[in-house]
Amino acid sequence: MQIIHHGARTGVTGSCHEVRISTYGLLVDCGLFQGEEAGRTLNIEFPIEHIKALLLTHCHIDHVGRLPWLLAAGFRGPIYATEATSALLPLMLEDGLKIHLGLDKSQCEQFTRLVKLLLKPIPFDCRAQLVLPDGGLVSICFRPAGHILGSAYIELVLPDGENVIFSGDLGPYSTPLLVDPQSPKQVGTLVIESTYGGKYHQPIDYREQQLAEIIERSMNDGGAILLPAFSVGRTQELLFDIENIISRTLPLKSRKEDAATNWHQLPVILDSPLAIGITEQYITFQRLWAKEAKQRLLSGRHPLSFKQCITVNQHSDHLAIVNRMKVTGEPAIIVAASGMCEGGRIMNYLEALLPDSRTDVILVGYQAKGTLGRSLQSQPDSVEIQNKNIKVNATVHTMSGYSAHADQFDLVKFVAGIEQGPQQIRIVHGDLSSQRALAKKLAAVKPGCEVIIAAEEGS
Ligand SMILES: [Zn+2]
Known about the structure:
alpha/beta, Rossmann fold, single chain, binds zinc ion, 2 domains
């Protein structure tokens, strides 16, 4: 068995790994290069004739976005993914195809029809058997990774009995909406991500309280509260917390009565067709939610589709709301993509509302260098949006605690919890310093295990 990294050997995008078993290959993920790696060719430059299946850990575009190029290169093998990832995948790909390839609706539908034909949805914790042309059996099992809906780490048992695990992206522990990742019992070779292999996140417990405090302060002067957010994962976590804040304020009396009234009259506008579609899938797959989220359902609440949450699908409605907010300055929370303020419907809101001093922008995600989100974090006097100079009189807040990624503590906990093995760990999907930092910690918790820093290997 050999593992070849076709992407995310170093860096955090373009995830694509191959398990070579004699003369056959299995691909794990086929992601798009983004950010600093965006200049790399998207064409599939490695041979694919021997690739017998594609396995997807989750539907983030840096793990699935090169699927159109893989199919264009001639791949027609089965695509294994969890049921929820299989449901989300067409939505994510259609959005990606429109943005990156400028395909129209019917071209997108044609493409997603082909993907749906190849997809083999597998429930969590069930084993699928893949028969190789020489009769060898590969057992495939998806285990919850707690990163986004449907996300999994993949356990493979190869024909010779060797046990290989690909972590995909692992989520943090103790988030209220999705279940925690559980460490596998036994591993031979572990391929693990290291996005935050050298960092610690702020505790998750405080994020809802912090969000409530910022929104409450913002409500005092009216105006819009803009929450730029990724459509998958971040948006649903935000809606989940906002619903809980609203629900918590219900029984408040006396001096806090005003605050409770404000919260209960505040519209929460979800203005993103992709995020609306994804949120519907989160609701469909509520059986995958964590205990706390299920308890809220049992008590009659609707954490992702509450009364005050208004969804905006049509572009004409979106433009009308932007205009209305600009003219009236009515208070409202607006959740829209993109998370780093690089394209998407949030751009029209920013252009219209940044000059208004009553506007608040809350940045809840990582803002990469060179993005508008990163510029806004320094509270500049003005920014450039769609080739126009826009004054920034709005207040910009930055908060953390919403990362969908495990930090160093979580990654080490995941590995330390493995009862048997691994004999080898390959660290991928992170910059060199993150990979090195994680390698040091993992070598300490698993003495005797060979720890390979993929970024230091030759390509
Ligand atoms: Zn991801």
